[in-house]
């Protein structure tokens, strides 16, 4: 007897989107009525139910080929257990997805049933309407994928019989192989790009697939299998691996009965492989659970009741129950009710969460997301809540809570660090490995004149490079920091307004956990004032304040350096002169010390005018001066000294309308190999000076050893 929804008197369960025809083979009317009622609960898909009570009636219905899915009871008047499934599947008219409905609760029996090709196995009394409809959806989806695979296999079989994609013909005696143009085109090659030998195939087979393919060929050549069939990957011209079905048979043998010729076809099965992978992923998803996720996840129905939670949710509740009023227990609790009843300090967050959930339920929002605290006495915790509708169903929503405490702590540390960096008086700039600025503190802007917006994305050298440092300077800098070391140095940079300033710069590389450099941090300090003070100190320490000439200490240091150079180069001649203004005390006594100072400055100006760049002069004390002339013989030094003496004698100082004549006495010596200290040669020059004074002043004398 056949019933078409016997309870509804042939009323069709029809809805707007889809309608499926269901064949139910069930001898228990109460179970049949329950299935019918469950199917009517579906709101987004319709079902037309045909009910029969025996296997024979079911087989007769299958011959009509009018149904989309079969629901089968295993305890029928004319068949029992696994034999019922076998009888159904052996029917020549059977091609439907099959779901078994049984009261038999045995794991081993269930596995036997599923291995026989059944899509699902539901135990009576343990499933509701939602579970039944989900099982039907899954079975229909899986059947559709399997049908697609079956149709693809039929096309490939047709290709093997003569309408294949690519053809090959192999002479086993010579190893010559003919590859058809289509065979070559499948791999992206033209006719003349592949030769006629077996190696053209072997070298393109994926290395792990090659031994398998060769073994399958050998099995056919040995007569152990009727044909060669192998799925393997081949390298195409574009460098990509694609899957192919390779099939062939021996078509001729030698007089000795050995295989002589083998022909076959090659079909691209990449799409089929992708489909198989999709099917496998679908199976894995069907048997996987959300327990593998670290987020705390629950599923709510439209009333707000929790219908499913994952392991992370359960464990969090078990660990925190009683510690926080925000923690909601497991299945059967009403999430919205807990939110609505919260009255402690977290009530605002609870109300916001409840409003967000309801907005997603109504369809006002596609996604709702918020961050909220869930603190206990012992620790501070933060979570991110995300509410989304259940895929393919408007009956449920998913609420996921992710622990973001570490992120919040990191953000707080970052804010503190940034506040500290922004408060530092030194300019701080962070760049990527290509020296493009990603961040700079306010002190950087104060130092350079550029705002952060102006600096972002630019290299510091494009902003402040003055041109005072050459390329070797920057090459050394980059070589140091790219090797993972810190570079420190001083340079002259240019502000936005064009002003130059002295800068002390430290650049340190920043690495990730693998030691790879990801950024550079530069610390800048304006040292212009310090450099000015240093220059002043050097000037004060090395210069005579009255004449501006090197003082005695600096002169002696320079002369010592010249002695060291002379020791390294024996042919290096250095003449040393001692000079003393004649009758200088009388000038001071007659005209006063102010005029005496002007005489010293006047003489210093003449010295500067007459000296070369390589020469050095110094005021050694009072009216006494010293000069050394590198690369100068005694005779040349005498010429220079005489010219200097005459210049001073012929250029009186005009002071208060009076011409004050001044002369100088000069003693000359030269460096010798025995000179280790500057005093040695100065003593000899001073002795020559003494003789010039003794012989009447205003003259030049050479040291003569006496």
From TrEMBL:
Sequence ranges assigned to domain Response regulatory in this UniProt record: 21-139
GO terms (BP aspect): phosphorelay signal transduction system
Protein name as catalogued: Diguanylate cyclase
Modified-residue entries (4-aspartylphosphate), positions: 73
InterPro entries referenced in this protein's UniProt entry, alphabetically: CheY-like_superfamily, DGC-Regulatory_Protein, GGDEF_dom, Nucleotide_cyclase, PAC, PAS, PAS-assoc_C, PAS-like_dom_sf
Pfam families listed in its UniProt record: GGDEF (PF00990), PAS_3 (PF08447), PAS_4 (PF08448), PAS_9 (PF13426), Response_reg (PF00072)
Residues annotated as domain PAC: 228-281, 485-539
Domain GGDEF as annotated: residue spans: 572-705
Origin: domain of life: Bacteria
Cofactor(s) listed: Mg(2+)
NCBIfam families in the cross-refs: GGDEF, sensory_box
GO molecular function, one term: catalytic activity
Keywords: Phosphoprotein
């Amino acid at each position: 007897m056949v019933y078409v929804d016997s309870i509804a008197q042939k009323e069709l369960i029809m809805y707007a989107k889809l309608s499926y025809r269901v064949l139910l083979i069930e001898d228990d009317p109460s179970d049949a009525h329950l299935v019918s009622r469950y199917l009517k609960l579906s709101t987004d898909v319709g079902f037309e139910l045909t009910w029969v009570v025996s296997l024979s009636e079911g087989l007769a219905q299958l011959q009509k080929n009018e149904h989309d899915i079969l629901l089968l009871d295993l305890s029928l008047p004319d068949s029992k257990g696994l034999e019922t499934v076998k009888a159904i599947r052996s029917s020549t008219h059977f091609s439907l997805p099959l779901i078994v409905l049984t009261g038999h609760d045995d794991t081993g029996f269930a596995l036997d049933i599923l291995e026989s090709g059944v899509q699902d196995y539901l135990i009576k009394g343990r499933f509701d309407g939602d579970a039944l409809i989900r099982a039907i959806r899954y079975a229909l989806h899986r059947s559709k994928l399997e049908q697609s695979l079956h149709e693809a296999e039929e096309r490939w079989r047709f290709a093997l019989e003569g309408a294949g994609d690519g053809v090959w013909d192999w002479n086993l005696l010579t190893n010559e192989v003919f590859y058809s143009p289509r065979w070559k085109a499948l791999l992206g090659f033209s006719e003349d790009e592949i030769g006629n030998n077996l190696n053209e195939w072997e070298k393109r087979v994926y290395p792990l697939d090659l031994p398998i393919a060769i073994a399958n060929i050998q099995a056919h050549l040995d007569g152990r299998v009727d044909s060669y069939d192998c799925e393997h990957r081949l390298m195409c011209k574009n460098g990509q691996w694609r899957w192919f079905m390779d099939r062939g048979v021996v078509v001729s043998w030698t007089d000795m009965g050995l295989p002589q010729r083998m022909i076959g076809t090659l079909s691209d099965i990449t799409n089929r492989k992708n489909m198989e992978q999709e099917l496998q992923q679908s199976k894995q998803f069907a048997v996987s659970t959300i327990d593998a996720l670290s987020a705390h996840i629950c599923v709510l129905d439209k009333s707000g009741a929790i219908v499913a939670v994952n392991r992370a949710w359960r464990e969090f509740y078990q660990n925190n129950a009683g510690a926080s009023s925000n923690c909601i227990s497991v299945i059967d609790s009403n999430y919205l009710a807990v939110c609505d009843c919260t009255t402690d300090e977290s009530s605002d967050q609870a109300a916001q969460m409840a409003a967000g959930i309801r907005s997603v339920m109504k369809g006002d929002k596609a996604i709702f997301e918020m961050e909220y605290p869930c603190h206990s006495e012992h620790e501070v915790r933060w979570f991110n809540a995300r509410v989304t509708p259940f895929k393919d169903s408007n009956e449920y929503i998913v609420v996921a809570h992710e622990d973001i405490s570490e992120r919040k702590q990191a953000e707080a540390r970052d804010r503190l660090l940034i506040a500290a960096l922004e408060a530092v008086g030194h300019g701080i700039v962070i760049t990527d490995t290509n020296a493009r600025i990603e961040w700079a503190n306010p002190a950087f802007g104060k130092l350079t004149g550029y705002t952060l917006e102006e600096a972002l994305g630019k290299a510091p050298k494009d902003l402040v490079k003055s041109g005072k440092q050459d390329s070797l300077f920057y090459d050394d800098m980059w070589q140091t920091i790219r090797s993972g070391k810190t570079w420190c140095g001083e340079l002259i940079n240019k502000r936005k307004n064009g002003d130059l300033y002295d800068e002390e710069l430290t650049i340190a590389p920043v690495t990730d956990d693998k030691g790879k450099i990801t950024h550079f941090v530069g610390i800048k300090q304006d040292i212009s004032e310090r450099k000015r003070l240093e220059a002043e100190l050097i000037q004060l320490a090395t210069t005579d304040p009255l004449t501006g000439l090197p003082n005695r200490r600096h002169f002696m240091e320079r002369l010592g350096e010249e002695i060291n150079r002379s020791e390294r180069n024996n042919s290096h001649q250095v003449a040393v002169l001692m000079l003393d203004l004649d009758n200088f005390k009388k000038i001071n006594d007659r005209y006063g010390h102010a005029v005496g100072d002007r005489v010293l400055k006047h003489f210093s100006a003449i010295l500067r005018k007459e000296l070369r760049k390589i020469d050095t002069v110094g005021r050694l004390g009072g009216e006494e001066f010293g000069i050394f002339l590198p690369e100068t013989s005694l005779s040349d030094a005498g010429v220079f000294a005489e010219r200097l003496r005459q210049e001073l004698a012929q250029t009186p100082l005009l002071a208060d309308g009076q011409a004050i004549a001044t002369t100088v006495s000069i003693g000359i010596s030269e460096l010798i190999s025995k000179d280790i200290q500057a005093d040695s040669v100065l003593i000899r020059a001073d002795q020559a000076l003494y003789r010039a004074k003794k012989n009447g002043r205003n003259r030049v004398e050479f040291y003569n050893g006496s």
